[in-house]
Amino acid sequence: MKLNKYLQGILYNWPAKILSLVFAVLVYAFIQFSTMGSRVVSIPIDVQLPLVLEAESLVPASIEVSIKGNEDIIYLINPESIDASLDFSSVQEAGIATAPVVLRYEEDVFESAGIALQADPQYYRILFNEGSDP
Q1: Phi then psi for 44, rounded to 5 degrees?
Q2: Is the domain of 84 the same as that of 124?
Q3: Residues 16-65 pLDDT 10s
Q4: Less crowded by CB within 10 Å, the N or C end of the chain?
């Protein structure tokens, strides 16, 4: 008989209890997503060019990196702790070559804090021509 009383207590006014639970989950999700922010920083980029070819188009000196995560944390990140590089050293012939921007950072620290980094743009294209001999 006692089990029946407990079951009746749980099931009594169950629509209000379910609605309250759903409302609590929605409030929690709203608070979590409202504290998410984005910060854009400009960092220098290391570009490896091929030895036998000359770059005809603009070679970037810096790149913008978007830091996304909790607003309280993303402004504590030192942009100098992020390294960016482009590697065109394997290009062997003249023409347009594409390479991805590689970001190096302490992945364990950033991922444990829920922080994501993204380079803008993620790929660069550079036009290469044969080098002129003097």
Answers
A1: -70, 150
A2: yes
A3: 889 999 999 999 888 777 767 888 999 999 999 888 888 888 888 999 99
A4: C
Number of structural domains the chain divides into? 2
Q: Which residues span the domain enclosing 93? A: 37-130
Phi-psi region of 42 (alpha: psi -120 to 50; beta: other; left: phi over 0): beta
Residue showing tokens 């929605």: 26
Counting Cβ atoms within 10 Å, is residue 98 exposed (0-12), middle (13-18) or buried (19+)? exposed
User: Is residue 63 located within the same domain as residue 99?
Assistant: yes
Buried residues in 37-54 as b, exposed as e (16+ CB within 10 A):
eeeebebebebebbeebe
pTM of the model: 0.65
